[in-house]
Amino acid sequence: MTQQAEPDSIPDGQSAASGRAPAGPSAQAGAASSPGPAEPASGNPAEPGPAEPGATGPAASPGAAGPGRADGFGAAFCASMATLCAEFVVAATAGVLVLLGREHDGLPTAPLMAAAVGLGALLLTVLISGFVTAAGVMPALALARRAARRAGREGSGGRGWTAGAVPVVAAAAVAVFGAVAALGSLSLARPLSYLLWWASLTVALLPPALVARAAARRVREGRMGSVARRVTRDGAVVWLAVGAIGALVYGTGLADVYHPPRLHKSDIAGVWSDGRNGSVTLEKGGRAVAEGLDNFDWDGMGKPRARDCDGAGTWSPLKDGGKIVGVSVQIEACEFRKNWSVSGTTKEPRLFHEIGKQGSGKRYVLTKVAGKK
């Protein structure tokens, strides 16, 4: 019969001995395998280990381009487009202000028409700036980088390489487009024309190329800020300044806006000469007499060809809103039918019509030399 002992009857020493792990080989093995505090790998815990070859850290150079770092192409492209747009808008505004004081065929005055023309011109400017950037500015930057790399100055990033590449790209562009134009017209332009086109294109491409280079370098170096936004802001300030100066000049009367002369039928009657032994006499009764008047027509190459016209015919004023804006002259003997526009001033009126292709800007001009009494 088993005798059970009460818990309180067991001595404290025996209870502690029974709860202690036996000191044997297994106990020693367990003690050895139990985890303890980790020892430092080296004698100096504060000294970091050697960096791995592919690791990036604060010691990495900010200008070094890693696998995920942008090369700045997009920033350069946008900055170049912004610069070209600013150049065109400022130049166009200045040109319009100058044109207002000179003889011109007229500008749109209706608000809707002016807004439509302005919006269309702005969209066309954006498209042209993108094309010029792709065809001229970016090749200039690529040429500058390649030249610097071959010269062992790839890391210098000097503006001189870009400034030197722009004239080369401009010369190539003039050569290509000049060759295409020569093939289309089957004739070469004057050498001075090519030189002027090259100089103008170089001057136009140099600012966007330098700005695009600065934008790309800023992105590669990881600096904040957008060069395109800065160019847009500064361009808007310059545009407003040019407009304010123009408004001040015309508003204070320092310059007058040009208006064609207001002529009556009696003012048109008289002798009109081209200064080259060609003239037409417009009589008050509506009769016209031509003597050696040039009758321009088209030749086989699409160029205007002059042919003398002699004979009698008729003329009549052309009106717009009750105002005489031109003269229609018909000489049946030489099949001469032309509408002449009024230009010049009240003291020195002129009649003209375009010759050659429409919109070419070439004019055949007659000046009044005597009145017909």
TrEMBL record:
The chain crosses the membrane at residues 73-100, 112-144, 165-189, 195-216, 237-258. The keyword Ribonucleoprotein does not apply. Residues 13-46, 52-64 have a biased composition (Low complexity). It comes from the Bacteria. The keyword Acetylation does not apply. Residues 1-66 are annotated as: Disordered. Keywords: Membrane, Transmembrane, Transmembrane helix. This is Uncharacterized protein. It comes from Streptomyces caatingaensis.
